[in-house]
Amino acid sequence: MALKEDFRSADLSPEDRAMLDYAEKITLAPWTVTEDDVANLRDHGFDDVAILEIATVSAYRNYIARVANALGVELGEHTFADDMAFRRTMEEGMV
What we know:
The chain is mainly alpha-helical. It is 64% helix and 0% strand. The protein has one domain (13-92). Helix 2 (14-28) packs antiparallel against helix 3 (35-43) and helix 2 packs across helix 4 (48-71).
């Protein structure tokens, strides 16, 4: 639950904390991201493909949230991640 509420209070590895710090920076102030932020991820063991994936997933999630906000979409408590049948289907590439 700590991870969902505030990742800083969760028991995380230094690598996970670095990843979440970067994702948060992309979310709150993407114009402030510098090569030092990317270097920090490399220092924590992430290669360029993993860094690209972190940036892409973070940016995409932010995009979707902004579109939903712009359209006044109200999200309920249910998420697709909670739906095991949907997750299995997605993992199998059937959607």
